[in-house]
Amino acid sequence: MYYSIKILLVQFILVQKMKLNFIGSVHFSSEDETFFGSIEGIDDLISFEGTTVNELKKAFYESVDEYIELCTKLGKPLEKSYKGNLNIRMPAELHKQASRQKTFREIV
Questions:
Q1: Measured between alpha carbons, how far is 47 from 91 in angstroms, rounded to an integer?
Q2: Domain range holding 54?
Q3: Which neighbouring-strand residues pair with 6?
Q4: Counting beta carbons within 10 angstroms of the beta carbon of residue 34, is it exposed (0 to 12), middle (13 to 18) or buried (19 or more)?
Q5: For 78-96, what is the mean pLDDT?
Q6: How many independent structural domains does the chain possess?
Q7: Mean of the pLDDT values across residues 35-41?
Q8: What is the torsion angle, in degrees rounded to the nearest 10, for the CA atoms of residue 87, residue 45, residue 80 and residue 85?
């Protein structure tokens, strides 16, 4: 069994002082007692894991560094996690139901 938590892992400065935002989805496996995740919002698969939060954060940074190095080496454009905003208004009850459905679907 694993638990799912989506978090914004940080904004940081890398490669020629460009500001890059990457968003990671983080899950926890109770069987392995390991946090694991991947970068969201890009077409490539970048994953990371750790048994502590510090290990997870370090693995996240290392994965992003490796992704940037590989893109640079291959001459491939660097993708970033989606940064746009989508704001919509809806009744509070509908928002509550949508949130519960999203949570339920991530668990199943």
A1: 37
A2: 2-107
A3: 25
A4: middle
A5: 76
A6: 1
A7: 84
A8: 0
